[in-house]
Specification:
Involved in the biosynthesis of ADP-glucose, a building block required for the elongation reactions to produce glycogen. Catalyzes the reaction between ATP and alpha-D-glucose 1-phosphate (G1P) to produce pyrophosphate and ADP-Glc. Residues 15-283 form the Nucleotidyl transferase domain. By secondary structure, this protein is α/β, with parallel strands linked by helices. Helix content is 24%, strand content 28%. The strands form six sheets. Strands 1, 4, 5, 6, 8, 9, 10, 11 and 12 form a nine-stranded mixed sheet that branches. Strands 17, 18, 20, 21, 23, 25, 27, 28 and 29 form a nine-stranded mixed sheet that branches. Helix 1 packs across helix 6.
Length: 419
């Protein structure tokens, strides 16, 4: 059966929609698109969708970029350049301005595929797997492709059960006992509840499987419709649902669980609170997401850096970390870390104390700084003696403080402290 699924995956091209800004992450996406945001100590968010595709046996991938795409494109060039044309593999980076002469931006998620149909059809894939590039999860897409082929659906939509309140930001569907989608509503104010569970709704994961020929025909018709917003969730999927050709694929059927994982894991890390929590959760004794499992690796660009180093062993000036993850190139110099996640090249100086800190690459924390429940953007230099996490009112005046009490610190915010 695995061989059958693998054969279907080899006939499939994955198309990743990676142009979104992710405005709820505030200043973290001022210079990078949401899929390019760092996650988990070494990776970027987009690495999860790309790794899922590769691990599922899919070797043709297109990535549509738009907003602040430079860091995302650079990351893919550095970390995803192992595809070989002679093995029928390819990774195409498709900026919004590439295919149009007049209006350069993608008008919607469907238009982001329409503009590149000639490239897709040039490879001749029988199936097209459309993915969102901004979620954290592990999934074997071959199960979803297999269901699509067996059901004869026009589209198969990946879905997950979420609390109804959270479903307001997603496309929400109602299904029958055969997984046929009876109704699909994009970002409803009052999401319809799942049958038998009034507290949860069935939300679209932004994952769709089509036969390429069928999708191309649908998209070209949609492109000629002046009343369409040219979006999968708003236009394409509801139209197919109305025709009776849409089926749901529950994430639980294809979620990859290995190592310590006990239930399907999927996160939208689209807010500062959700981003901080998902990163800090990785430091748990039994994390909900196991990034150490080798049977489903998360591929990424790995910088050539030395191992992490912990120095000084004096009372009050001891380089130590408890329940923390520390990436290569870090130097913990006479500092104390408790439940922290530090990315590549972070340096902390003597007598500083960090608790619940997510520090992006090449952050430097000055002497005697005391930081609690913060996210520090790449390259920020925390001044000596700075205290964050003790006075909520003061923190809110100086930094971006979330509803959940997490402070986001950028270099611009630090520079204004001296002004």
């Amino acid at each position: 059966m695995r061989d059958d699924r693998y054969a279907l995956a080899q006939q499939t091209m994955a198309y990743v929609l990676a142009g979104g800004r992710g405005s709820r992450l505030k200043e973290m996406t001022d210079i990078r698109a949401k899929p390019a945001v760092y996650f988990g100590g070494k990776t970027r968010i987009i690495d999860f969708a790309l790794s899922n595709a590769v691990n599922s046996g899919i070797r043709r991938i297109g990535v549509a970029t738009q907003y602040k795409a430079h860091s995302l494109i650079r990351h893919m060039q550095r970390g995803w350049s192992f595809f070989r044309a002679e093995r029928n593999e390819s990774l195409d980076i498709l900026p919004a301005s590439q295919q149009m002469d007049e209006e350069n931006w993608y008008k919607g998620t469907a238009d982001a595929v329409t503009q590149n149909l000639s490239i897709i059809e040039g490879y001749g894939p029988k199936y097209l797997l459309v993915l969102a590039g901004d979620h954290i999860y592990k999934q074997d897409y071959s199960f979803m492709i297999e269901q699509h082929v067996r059901s004869g659906a026009k589209v198969t939509v990946g879905c997950i059960a979420v609390p109804r309140e959270e479903a307001k930001g997603f496309g929400v569907m109602a299904v029958d006992t055969n997984d046929k989608i009876l109704d699909f509503v994009e970002k409803p104010a009052d999401p319809p509840a799942m049958p038998g569970d009034p507290t949860r709704a069935l939300a679209s994961m932004g994952i769709y499987v089509f036969e390429t020929e069928v999708l191309a025909r649908i998209l070209r018709e949609d492109a000629q419709n002046p009343d369409s917003s040219h979006d999968f969730g708003s236009d394409i999927i509801p139209a197919i649902v109305a025709e009776g050709g849409a089926y749901a694929h529950p994430f639980s059927r294809s979620s990859v669980m290995s190592g310590l994982e006990t239930e399907p894991y999927w996160r939208d890390v689209g807010t500062i609170d959700a981003y901080w929590q998902a990163n800090i959760d990785l430091t748990d004794f039994k994390p909900a997401l196991d990034i150490y499992a080798t049977d489903w690796p998360i591929w990424t660009y790995s910088e050539l850096v030395p191992p992490a180093k912990f120095i000084h062993n004096e009372e009050g000036r001891r380089g130590q970390a408890v329940s923390s993850m520390v990436a290569g190139g870090c130097i913990i110099s006479g500092s104390s870390l408790d439940r922290c996640l530090l990315f590549t090249g972070v340096k902390t100086h003597s007598f500083s104390q960090l608790e619940g800190v997510v520090a992006l690459p090449y952050v430097e924390v000055g002497r005697r700084a005391q930081l609690k429940n913060v996210v520090i953007d790449r390259g920020v230099k925390i001044p000596e003696g700075l205290v964050v996490g003790e006075d909520p009112d003061l923190d809110a005046k100086r930094f971006r403080r979330s509803e959940g009490g997490i402070c986001l610190i950028t270099q611009d915010m630090i520079d204004k402290l001296d002004g």
